[in-house]
Write a structure and sequence with these properties.
- 2 copies of one chain form a homodimer.
- Chain A has 150 residues and is an alpha+beta fold.
- Chain A folds into 2 domains: 15-90, Winged helix-like DNA-binding domain superfamily/Winged helix DNA-binding domain (Arc Repressor Mutant, subunit A), CATH 1.10.10; 98-148, 2-Layer Sandwich (Dna Ligase, domain 1), CATH 3.30.1490.
- In chain A, 33% of the residues lie in helices and 19% in strands.
- Chain A is built from 5 helices and 6 strands, in the order H-H-E-H-H-E-E-E-E-E-H.
- In chain A, a hairpin with a 5-residue loop joins strand 4 (98-102) and strand 5.
- The longest helix of chain A is centred in the middle third of the chain and has 13 residues, at 61-73.
- Chain A is globular, with a radius of gyration of 17 Å.
- Residues 1-11 of chain A have low confidence and may be disordered.
- Strand 6 (130-141) of chain A pairs antiparallel with strand 6 of chain B.
- The first copy, chain A, binds a DNA duplex (30 and 30 nucleotides) through residues 25-30, 44-46, 58-63, 65-67, 86-87.
Chain lengths: 150, 150
DNA sequence: TCTAATTCTTGACTCAGTCCACAATCGGGC
DNA sequence: GCCCGATTGTGGACTGAGTCAAGAATTAGA
């Protein structure tokens, strides 16, 4: 839905160019990791590894972890880790959205941030910290689990 | 700071009674875990285990994990798990406060919730979930790390 | 005090993630 | 288009947090 305020980057960004722009070498593994994270938001490293392997035939687990780490560092993907879950990754970045997690089945869905800017909340007392992000996880029961659980 | 609205339980609660009231058997291990979590907020399971061992002489790791899990289930302690950290536990419950975590050194401090009631925030779209908690982690750099890092 | 149910101990095991040394690949200069 | 140094990826061992399971010890109600 194109609105009056256009995004700062082109509508369709070439993933290879995206990597180059960030100062990263372009490799088949990194491109495949980027595709996997985009195709399957909130996937674990294992799931990403499986998708990448299905995509380009073979990868080492280490390459997947390396790519996830460096892409995360550069801000091309985001890493979240709800309690009792292994790390999950998503390619939706920059809009500072939040997450809704089901206590029963663990399903994770995105929720828009009502404020929109980061950090979207201000701590009542920052204890001298320089805060750059407020990460919010809403915990509850999803519609499916709500009907099963008492 | 006692205000006009008093807490629902007595000012000083006997820990053993607290366990009994929750329907749990009172054991030396559980009492020691409760003491350890209170004495060292935001400690990991390993740290709790060490404190408990120093306190009552010996415990199995399993007993510590069992106690942390059941005390968490019953709401006597809270479990938090910031990204890239193992689980941490605290006995300050019921006031729905939040946390401030340093990206560099990992130090965790409490921040009061500006709203006070749970869930203190409302998701912009609940996707049909029944939300009972909004967990907020503020990420940044603590005063000490701010002077070291560029 | 006795007894059934709950809890703790011990030790093996799983899973996510990391470390390391060597091989393969990328990409800027010729 | 080819070379070469720097960056990445591979394979395999390893770590740390947490879980499972069977039997021994403890708790609490009769």
């Amino acid at each position: 839905m194109p609105g009056p305020s256009a995004q700062s980057h082109p509508v369709v960004v070439d993933p290879a160019q995206l990597l180059r722009d960030t100062g990263l070498q372009v490799t088949a593994q990194r491109l495949a990791v980027l595709r996997a994270v985009t195709a399957s938001p909130h996937g674990t490293a294992d799931e990403v590894e499986a998708l990448v392997r299905a995509d380009i035939g073979a990868v080492s687990r280490q390459a997947v972890y390396d790519a996830l780490a460096i892409l995360g560092d550069k801000g091309l993907i985001r890493r979240i880790q709800p309690s009792r879950s292994s790390a999950r990754f998503e390619s939706r970045v920059g809009d500072n959205h939040h997450h809704l997690v089901c206590r029963a089945c663990g399903i994770t869905v995105d929720v828009d941030c009502a404020v929109g800017e980061r950090p979207c909340l201000h701590a009542s007392d920052d204890h001298g910290f320089v805060i750059d992000e407020a990460e919010v996880i809403y915990w509850g029961l999803c519609p499916a689990c709500r009907t099963i659980e008492p």
